[in-house]
Write a structure and sequence with these properties.
Distance between the termini: 21 Å
Number of helices: 11
Helix content: over 70%
Radius of gyration: 19 Å
Number of strands: 0
Low-confidence stretches: none
Order of helices and strands: HHHHHHHHHHH
Largest sheet: none
Length: about 250
């Protein structure tokens, strides 16, 4: 039985709420505090050396529109990657499938990260003179890209990390520089060639560009390729699902 059922997914979501966020009163508060502190730190550091951010007039908004999509991707992809290890005991039941585990973790953490981003950005816009002009279609498109890439790469990593413990360390090493290479603290168009061309292949650059275009009406991001991000997401997602379908019983017996 490979198709997820709403009742099982709902039960897995409630379990995750209790174990991941309900053990202490600060569970959800920390999820909100992490990006807020990150944005504040970047604002303080770069406002010392520069009078204005690369786009717009407000440092907190510029870094919020870069850091929040990045953190959302990191959290979602990591949570999906650990879905089978997290729910290994429940997967022993025939009615619970690995797809249930993947979707349960993904849905809860996507909604959590969306709420965190909404509260943070609303706070920035209300507290500062950001001069933002929201384009909801662009923002929604950016969220769709985050969701697709997080689930696709997370599904592939779910297989790799469940089968090969060393993969978690290898992946962590290779992705450590992503904060500096994803357009969080700079604008893609300001990067000189040939480095700009190399950075284009980082799907997070496209995601950050699309999200920022939803807040800055004068920000031109022609480099963003929605089809490229979805193609990368589909490749890793389908490949990961096929591998999990073939080897998920072997993983549970490990």
């Amino acid at each position: 039985m490979l198709f997820a059922t709403p009742r099982i997914i709902s039960a897995l979501i409630l379990r995750e709420i209790g174990t991941s966020y309900g053990r202490s009163p600060g569970g959800y508060l920390w999820a909100l505090a992490e990006p807020v502190l990150g944005i504040a730190l970047l604002t303080v550091i770069f406002s010392i050396g520069f009078r204005t951010p690369p786009i717009g007039v407000n440092f907190p908004l510029f870094y919020a529109t870069g850091l929040l999509p990045f953190l959302m991707f990191v959290d979602l992809s990591n949570k999906v990657a650990q879905a089978i290890n997290y729910s290994k005991q429940l997967l022993a039941y025939p009615r619970v499938t690995f797809i249930d585990a993947l979707l349960g973790r993904f849905i809860l953490n996507f909604l959590t990260q969306f709420l965190v981003a909404f509260i943070t950005l609303a706070g920035v816009i209300l507290c500062f003179d950001t001069r933002a002009a929201l384009n909801f279609s662009q923002i929604a498109s950016g969220l769709g890209l985050i969701a697709a890439l997080s689930f696709g790469l997370g599904t592939f990593n779910c297989f790799m990390m469940s089968m090969f413990q060393i993969w978690q360390r290898i992946y962590a090493i290779f992705t450590r520089p992503l904060l500096l290479l994803s357009g969080v603290i700079f604008v893609y168009s300001t990067v000189p060639e040939p480095y700009r061309g190399w950075l284009w292949y980082n799907p997070l650059v496209h995601i950050v560009g699309r999200v920022r275009a939803g807040f800055y009406p004068n920000y031109d991001a022609p480099f963003v390729s929605v089809s490229y991000v979805y193609a990368i997401s589909a490749f890793f997602g389908i490949f990961g699902l096929l591998l999990l379908r073939r080897y998920h019983r072997d993983i549970l017996e490990r």
